[in-house]
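Structure representation.

___
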Amino acid sequence: MILLPILAALGASAGWATGVVLAHGPARQLGAFEFTRIQLIACSAILAALCSGLGYWSTVAWAYWPAFGMSICIGIVLGNLAMIECLRRGGPRRTELLLSLKAPLVAGMALIWLGETPSAADLFGAGVTLCGVGLAVGFGGKERAATEAIDGTLWTIVFLGLTATACQGFGFLVMKPAMLAGTEPLAASAIRLLGAAFVISIVALWPRRRHAAHPDMTPALLGRTILPGFIGYGVSSTLLLYAFANFDAGVAAVLGSLSPVLVLPILWLKDGTRPHPTAIIGAALAVAGTAIIVLF
């Protein structure tokens, strides 16, 4: 049923929009490395327990272990470290703008690597959606909002965002053959997180990392760190992997890139800052582009 992967990709967008707003505060407190390390360890344990309880480990296509390895090291470790640092420095709205470029990047990779050629209607709908995303984020906030503050140069933020986008897009796309071989999306997410948690824990043993200063961890801060990780790594990543496996990768990436639009009403509720009228027009265009993809 084609509607299910479409809904899965849209659900991934909603999850990431919520998670990136929730992650902004604790990420600024802990720093990119410590924040990512805590998230990966906690979320990998949760997903591993779920897979064990549901009996999903037997579905894993272990013959594709090189794809798992590349997805872990490039897609999760490098991609998420860059994303969290971008979030700390540029805020959730700018981070989501840069991550929205994942769609054309993944579409290009899918065309070159997998030979997937989207239809003319899909390309037109994707173009309308990306234009809407650009308008929505470009005019989506006001500098007086706390989440709009910039730490560092804009070029650094752009570099971090593009690095995160390319790494994460590659990490998802390289998993498609393993997914087509029958691997359950939840099991694939669990393996990716377990591997990434192991890698980042080894890096944390480096002497300079062990002596880095961190704020005192409280139960509240720990919960605020783990929750967005579970939403992003556990829920959204699993949904997008399912969409990639059962739908055109480029189009699924577009539908999974609507979080820059969805983050605007969330920030409105959080900061009390109404989106710019142009942002509302952009959101409408994004919805229209999605409708073109779904209906045609």
